[in-house]
Amino acid sequence: MSPVADPPSTQNGSYSAAASVIKCVEAVTAAMESSNADDDSDDILKLLDTTRPIKVERPRSFGERSFNELSAALSPRHYRNYENSSRVDHLDHVYSPGRWSGFNSPRSMSTHFESNPIVAEAWESLRRTLVYYRGEPVGTIAALDHSNEQVNYDQVFVRDFVPSGLAFLMNGEYEIVKNFLLKTLHLQSWEKTVDHFKLGEGVMPASFKVIHKPERNIETLIADFGETAIGRVAPVDSGFWWIILLRAYTKSTGDSSLAEMPACQRGIKLILSLCLSEGFDTFPTLLCADGCSMIDRRMGVYGYPIEIQALFFMALRCALTLLKQDSEGKEFVERIVKRLHALSYHMRSYFWLDLKQLNDIYRYKTEEYSHTAVNKFNVMPDSLPDWVFDFMPCRGGYFIGNVSPAKMDFRWFCLGNCIAILSSLATPEQAAAIMDLIEARWDELVGEMPLKICYPAIEGHEWRIVTGCDPKNTRWSYHNGGSWPVLLWMLTAACIKSGRPQIARRALELAESRLGKDHWPEYYDGRLGRYVGKQARKNQTWSIAGYLVAKMMLEDPSHLGMVSLEEDKLMKPMMKRSTSWTC
């Protein structure tokens, strides 16, 4: 049984066994005295509730079946048999900071309070970022650093909340994640316009903020769909992260009732409708503007960035596990399966780079016509950057940043490659090659603080052209080669799935040596990530949550099931680029 903790304001992070027992008895007694006879048993059960272990081995869900099986026959979905006792409280349960709740005490990490003070500090800091709406926790703000009130770090960002949500799920605290999913789903239904132009119905907000008006005793929500963002770009990744987190919630709780709600089913389908709509594209990848994801400033990632394509692939696979098999659901499943086939082939064929492929591109012919062309995107070999020849090890490979007509962005992007592993967009061989690359280029990609958001930095004339002389994205800073601790959780999950947890442990030890002392910065600057970022916010929530998720995942690898999808073993083998291929 988990010890009952004091509220965050009085919690000091270290408890003896005797004190825990005393506080537990006191809390139970108080609950019995303060509640009426009808509610006594319910309150006691809530107080004494223990976290159930996550069951990793379950019958295969609909989405874990082969794409080919789905293509052959779309049979009704067989949902898991969930125990009634695994269901979480309904949304109408009101949380009060003065009442006992799982939010006050990290359950799975309680044994590390004394042995690892940084864990206790991280949990305490994470809980201070909680945002409440009408008495219920609905998210976490981006940062507790209020040094500049003009920025939007006091808002709840969809992508920023994902590591926080995973940390709470791993700790058996489901209510906040459920509330967040429902609240953002409600915001999706709002009419969205930017300069008199109406956005797609399925667009999820980038962020939202709770406005308290105590004089009128009301609370209101303000959502940002890109109309106030830098560059006025709608967040393409928010919808994908929402689907991924919904699947993680369902996997963690064993409760499919939330995903099966008509509102959630409609929300998933609205997101999918935006992404699966037919247009002028000849590629299965999604065409995106600069600034539509974690890299939310001009950084030359417009076109078909790896981050969006990997998240797109993972969201499609997660949607297969969540969609109900009614007539409309079956239609979406058919479209998803077809898109996954095309997308996986395209990404594995044209985005993948290793030593052999680099040599092939180096020897490309140009101006090829017809369907037998090898250089299908008419990439000029002279456009290959000098650094990539030294960067590519003999063993190793990665998905490059972007592929579009006459353009290949050879930069390494951490998020896209880690998500490619977790979603099984990367084959087992490709996943192992990515791990080989990280080990071989440790100083470049990890350095003294994990992890580089991209590598290498752009500078000089290229920086002026690509970023528009952005003073925040100077070389080896922020999105331009900065080191972001939040990426630690994705690396850890990818390492565990690839059978290389030692890589994650090494990175985690580096992070632990500095994060707490530096007050959890948003990012680090410098070629090695040695310096706290020049404009980095302190007490950045996803830096805190990313560390906790990585820590818990290494200690209990069964948590990986929340964010990992197994390879489809019956998927068609990757085809060669062309029947006329010669080396």
TrEMBL record:
<keyword id="KW-0326">Glycosidase</keyword>
<comment type="similarity">
    <text>Belongs to the glycosyl hydrolase 100 family.</text>
</comment>
<dbReference type="Pfam" id="PF12899">
    <property type="entry name" value="Glyco_hydro_100"/>
</dbReference>
<dbReference type="InterPro" id="IPR012341">
    <property type="entry name" value="6hp_glycosidase-like_sf"/>
</dbReference>
<comment type="function">
    <text>Invertase that cleaves sucrose into glucose and fructose.</text>
</comment>
<dbReference type="GO" id="GO:0004575">
    <property type="term" value="F:sucrose alpha-glucosidase activity"/>
</dbReference>
<keyword id="KW-0119">Carbohydrate metabolism</keyword>
<dbReference type="InterPro" id="IPR008928">
    <property type="entry name" value="6-hairpin_glycosidase_sf"/>
</dbReference>
<dbReference type="GO" id="GO:0005987">
    <property type="term" value="P:sucrose catabolic process"/>
</dbReference>
<keyword id="KW-0378">Hydrolase</keyword>
<dbReference type="InterPro" id="IPR024746">
    <property type="entry name" value="Glyco_hydro_100"/>
</dbReference>
<protein>
    <recommendedName>
        <fullName>Alkaline/neutral invertase</fullName>
        <ecNumber>3.2.1.26</ecNumber>
    </recommendedName>
</protein>
<dbReference type="GO" id="GO:0033926">
    <property type="term" value="F:endo-alpha-N-acetylgalactosaminidase activity"/>
</dbReference>
